[in-house]
């Protein structure tokens, strides 16, 4: 029998954390109910990274996300292999929590951020991750110059993660031009795995 997780009304990363808790408790069948697409996408990512099959049903703006493990022996083998693998360490990550650099003139601050992103595209030492939260999510959505630079970084292999709750807050989810919608759980994980984090 599947474990029911009622996360309706909860913003990310709460649905992910609630579901991950049941996975950690050994549940092999979980049904999580949510009311927004951001949570659905993040639950799909959780399923993919934990070896679960996932099925999504939508009705009246409410989503039922069913996670299940069908092959216990296969998953046990995968888990054993995963434990044997060394945890990869990123050289560094860039965390951007606003769309400008420094204090003072706002327009100068925004231009400095664009210059930073451009300079980063020309660097031989690229970050493994670039993480956008709070006001920083305006860069991969509303700032055309910044979008161009971020696309180049992504094309060069930099993983671009954008906070879904922040996109929702600013009502710009549909404006996302580059990067994957993410959550606090995943972003924190990337920061912890990075050798160092450069923050703005």
TrEMBL record:
Cross-referenced InterPro entries: DsrEFH-like, Se_metab_YedF, Sulphur_relay_DsrE/F-like, TusA-like, TusA-like_sf
One Pfam family, short name: TusA
Domain UPF0033 span(s) in chain numbering: 5-29
Full protein name: Selenium metabolism protein YedF
Organism, scientific name: Anaerocolumna aminovalerica
């Amino acid at each position: 029998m599947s474990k029911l997780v009622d996360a309706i009304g909860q913003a990310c990363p709460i649905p992910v954390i609630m579901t991950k808790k049941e996975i950690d408790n050994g549940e092999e069948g979980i049904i999580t109910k949510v009311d927004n697409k951001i949570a659905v996408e993040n639950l799909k990512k959780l399923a993919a990274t934990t070896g679960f099959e996932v099925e999504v049903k939508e009705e009246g703006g409410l989503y039922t996300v069913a996670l299940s493990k069908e092959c216990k022996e296969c998953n046990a083998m995968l888990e054993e292999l995963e434990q044997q693998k060394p945890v990869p360490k990123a050289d560094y990550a860039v965390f951007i929590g606003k769309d400008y650099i420094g204090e003072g003139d706002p327009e100068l601050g925004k231009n400095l951020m664009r210059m930073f992103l451009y300079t980063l595209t020309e660097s031989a030492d690229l970050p493994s991750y670039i993480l956008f939260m709070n006001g920083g999510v305006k860069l991969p959505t509303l700032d055309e110059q910044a979008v161009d630079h971020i696309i180049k970084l992504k094309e060069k292999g930099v993983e671009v993660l954008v906070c879904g709750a922040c996109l929702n807050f600013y009502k710009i989810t549909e404006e996302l031009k580059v990067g994957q919608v993410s959550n606090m759980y995943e972003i924190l994980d990337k920061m912890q795995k990075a050798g160092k984090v450069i923050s703005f």
